[in-house]
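I have a small job for you when you get a moment. Can you supply me with one protein entry, sequence and fold together? It will help me judge whether the discrete encoding reads sensibly. Write everything out right here, beneath this request:
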Amino acid sequence: MNQKPSVGRIVHYQAFGTPGGEYKSVPRAAVITEVHSDEDIGLCILNPTGQFFNQHVRYSEEPKPGCWNW
């Protein structure tokens, strides 16, 4: 990772989807709200139907449900 996360930057968050596959795992826009380390950040995830907050989201180079990337 050659970029450093900082508060206010926009990243991609990979949503989980549903276990039965009714809803696929898709990328969502997210705003960094806190930085714990280069790979552990807090996010405000923006969904079409609202937003939610997650305080500890891990980085993943490849899109992986529940993780963030650039």
User: Anything to note?
Assistant: The two ends are 9 Å apart (CA to CA).
